[in-house]
Amino acid sequence: MNKPSGALGMLSIAALACIGVALTIALHRSTAPQISAAQEAAQSQALLSVLPADSYDNQPLKHPLTLPPRTPDTQAVIAAYLVTRGEKPSAVLFQSQAEGYVGPIELLIAVSFDGQLMGVKVLKQNETAGLGDRIVTKPDWLARFLGKSLNNPDESAWALKKDNGQFDQIAGATVTSRATVEAIHQTLRFFDAYRAQLLSTANTGGKQP
What we know:
Blueprint: H1 2-47, E1 77-85, E2 88-99, E3 104-112, E4 117-124, H2 134-137, H3 140-143, H4 174-203
Antiparallel strand pairs: 1-2, 2-3, 3-4
């Protein structure tokens, strides 16, 4: 007489297990969008740390700008995003790339609408540990570019001191340092050359008129 009861008990346990799995799946599906949105917001916030907090009130990464044709002197720029405050353009956020010692170095560079560097952040690099990777581990090296512009210093000074320029290099990482300085300089050149056009595409939702 105990066997049927045992079978019923096993069926009940199996049914409860199935219900539990179904509830878990339903819960995961219902919370997945919120989790994804939270992760996206955290990643966006980490990237936007390159901008002073009081310099924007939009979501720049959702406002890409159409890039005009690049020249050999501005080829470092690979993407641009509009930064606004009070619905007025306040800066452009550039994604730029340099060829480092090991491989590409990707930078996020914020330029105010008066042409000053507001921030520089490394997005990606594979430089030698303990040498070139100090562009990440020693952020004070990048901080020295803040407030600089295309004409401050002048054209000839936008180079390493060993190349008769103004900027110190990262010790033991000449190629990394030179590539980074050049990428920042090219980004400023690009902004100076196309500022009006970038503003025009900003006013047309990122599309050329």
